[in-house]
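Q: For a teaching handout, I want to show students what a protein-ligand complex looks like in token form. Below are the inputs, and the small molecule is S-adenosylmethionine. Please produce the holo structure.
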Amino acid sequence: MSEIIQKLRTTQNLSDEELKLILTTDSYDEELTQNADAVRREHYGTDVYLRGLIEFTNYCKNDCLYCGIRKSNQNLSRYRLTEQDILECCKEGYALGFRTFVLQGGEDMYYTDERICNIISEIHKNYPDCAITLSIGEKSYDSYLAYFKAGAERYLLRHETANTEHYSKLHPAKMSCEHRKKCLFNLKKIGYQVGAGMMVSSPFQTLDNIIEDLRFLQELQPQMIGIGPFLSHQDTPFKNKPNGELKPVLKLLGILRLMFPKVLLPATTALGTLHPLGRELGLKTGANVIMPNLSPICVRKKYMLYDNKICTGDESAQCRQCTEQRAKSIGYQVVMSRGDAKDFEKR
Ligand code: SAM
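A: Here is the structure, written as tokens, with S-adenosylmethionine included.
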């Protein structure tokens, strides 16, 4: 094995220069994949955890320059799911074997803390053996605490980019990198299993930005890391920016698996959109989570974060089955447990 991959695997760290070398040299790719897979097998075997994704609102008060559901997109028909709709999705998901529900949406002020807490409590009451994950953006410490007390245990909030200057090129002036990072530390402090992550090949991203992302993740030590390629959306200011490519995402998945051996690492829908076998390749390079869609079929096409998003026409049962087959085709198997992070100690 080359020295550099050996060092990354044994010390879970490398210098900036060494990381850049892996990111820019294709001759390490095969070894990186093999080692990432070996480390994933050490901790998680061939298990792939499933998360049932419920995209419950596409209203958003933010105007992120890359995102298809940004406030300024007038070409989008907006929707909100009721508490009853969400519970229906959970019911269907539970019957299909899901034991984690991820509630994701834009930052929609209609869902006050009281409404969010009610939704969480209802899911918790009906499905006490399931984990509830939230992905609803930047909130106050007290709001995060209220959701946690109501029964949410995990929170996904990608930091998007850890570099302040780069962050300001992707977001309007009123959003800040510092605030997003602060939210992540608040979530950790409260006791959530936290997921951070970045878009790969987002406009203006440099190699140094990626190193900064990795350093930020080392500081945060999240339980989950969600990364995927930037993909353009026709109704955003970034409509003409090039889509990310497969290789950098796979390289980063491999590096992340070796840097954070026990982390939960999804093979994302964006990766599957980029390449027909993107998620399979992701799983083979250290990823161990897939998030099939449980949203009602009538709203799927409205949660269009980027163009050509996959799985917008399939029923939940089809998504569930398709995921199972994809994992099986490459020698892994989906498991329907809650799939908590291995190193997470509940308070
Ligand atoms: N509002 C919540 C938040 O800000 O975390 C959750 C919803 S947000 C739409 C979920 C994720 O979608 C973002 O963290 C971002 O990384 C990803 N996303 C949005 N637009 C994208 C694009 N054009 N390409 C790839 N990923 C995108």
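A: Two things your students might notice: The longest helix spans residues 29-44. The mean pLDDT is 97.
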